[in-house]
Write a structure and sequence with these properties.
16 strands; 6-stranded parallel β-sheet; Rossmann fold; alpha/beta; 2 domains; 40% helix; 6-stranded mixed β-sheet
Length: 389
């Protein structure tokens, strides 16, 4: 039996796929999530594949808030819990990961543990030394928001931080079993190198976003055509078209926190670029807010909080930073976000009727365009040039 800590989008999507052929148990502290899983309902915002995968599980996924309820039957433990960045300590909060490891080691016969949660470089080695064990591995995930199932079954690579032995090979085989693509690159490396791979990968993606955002800011100020410049730049095959659509800044759960953690890991290392990547996000939001403020709107309508089309998650979305800057200048901000049931969001009125929202907005601010905004294009402020993420 495979035991997974965490019913978020990493842990739950992996559990769904593993449960097609294996018995899987999820432990989570949220009783609502646990109840939904035990009722064969997704505990998180559903992707289109979730329901069919729930129906086709060989064994229904079991869930509990009590880690000891099923742990004695486990052959392997996977940790996929949050590690939020703590601004005060300038460090990931790894306390939940540490608790999961402690509970597992103190209450089982030295089960192999695979950490999927993003952690600072050096974390896993510290834990290995603390518990004097060689059965803890780090294996980063590279999932895009809203596409966790697709990315699990079409992995760009599988990385194992730790020795190639019976435990890690068994874990890799589980991941290959759920993959639809052949010849998935396998990389065995040390746990610290694997941790660095995750942080540098996400920081590079943030750098791409920041680069094209700053290109777009330059075009704004100099009255140039941003679309034409980007098309010309990206025609070079060495550069390509990935992550080149301007936005209000990089956001979501991973990129903002992972860039900050990597910068913290650079404490004793000379650098310029990493600091600039972190700072560029605030600079971009300042620029976007100033461009909106110049139009002297009385009421700004924020169209959707989500980061991407077809997403149902707005954790740390960049448009929220724009909202805060506009409100700090005394501008009234209203929201259209179908995912919100509350009448207000951070003291801004939520309007559920789209027509009413449009009528009440002087300017409609949208990180990404949508077909329903097209009739009002002359009132929409967006940086979406290519209609993609």
């Amino acid at each position: 039996m495979i035991y997974i800590y965490g019913a978020g989008y990493v842990g739950y999507s992996l559990a769904l796929l593993l449960a097609q052929k294996n018995q899987v148990v999820i432990c989570d502290t949220d009783p609502v999530k646990v109840e939904k899983i035990n009722s064969c309902e997704p505990p998180i915002e559903a992707e289109q594949e979730f329901q069919s995968l729930i129906s086709s599980c060989k064994h229904p996924i079991k869930a509990s808030t009590n880690f000891s309820e099923y742990i004695d039957r486990a052959s392997m433990v996977i940790i996929a819990v949050p590690t939020n960045f703590n601004a005060d300590t300038q460090h990931f909060d790894t306390s939940i990961v540490e608790l999961c490891i402690q509970q597992t080691i103190e209450n089982t016969k030295n089960l192999p543990i695979f950490i999927k949660s993003t952690v600072p470089v050096g974390f896993t080695k510290t834990i290995l030394d603390l518990y004097r064990t060689n059965k803890i591995f780090f294996s980063p995930e590279f999932l895009r928001e809203g596409k966790s199932i697709f990315d699990h079954i079409n992995p760009s690579r599988i990385i194992i931080g730790g020795p190639k032995n019976a435990h890690s090979i068994a874990f890799v085989n589980y991941l290959l079993e759920i993959a639809e693509k052949n010849d998935v690159p396998l990389i065995y490396t040390s746990c610290s190198e694997a941790e660095a791979i995750k942080l540098f990968s996400n920081t590079y993606l943030a750098m791409r976003v920041a680069f094209f955002n700053e290109l777009d800011s330059y075009a704004d100020i100099c009255s140039l055509n941003s679309r034409e410049i980007i098309k010309g730049v990206c025609s070079d095959p060495r550069i390509g078209e990935g992550y080149n659509n301007p936005s209000f800044g990089y956001g979501g759960y991973c990129l903002p926190k992972d860039t900050k953690q990597l910068l913290a890991n650079y404490k004793l290392v000379p650098q310029n670029i990493i600091q600039a990547i972190v700072e560029s996000n605030n600079t971009r939001k300042d620029h976007i807010a100033n461009q909106i403020i110049k139009q002297n709107p009385k009421v700004v309508g924020i169209y959707r909080l989500v980061m991407k089309k077809n997403s149902q998650n707005f954790r740390v979305s960049s448009i929220q930073g724009i909202m805060k800057r506009l409100k700090a200048k005394g501008i009234e901000v209203i929201l259209f976000e179908p995912l919100l049931q509350e009448p207000e969001f951070f003291n801004s009125k939520v309007i559920s009727n789209f027509s009413e929202f449009v009528q009440d907005s002087n300017i409609i601010v949208a990180n990404r365009m949508d077909d329903e905004l097209t009739p009002y294009r002359d009132r929409v402020y967006t940086k979406d040039l290519f209609g993609k993420d």
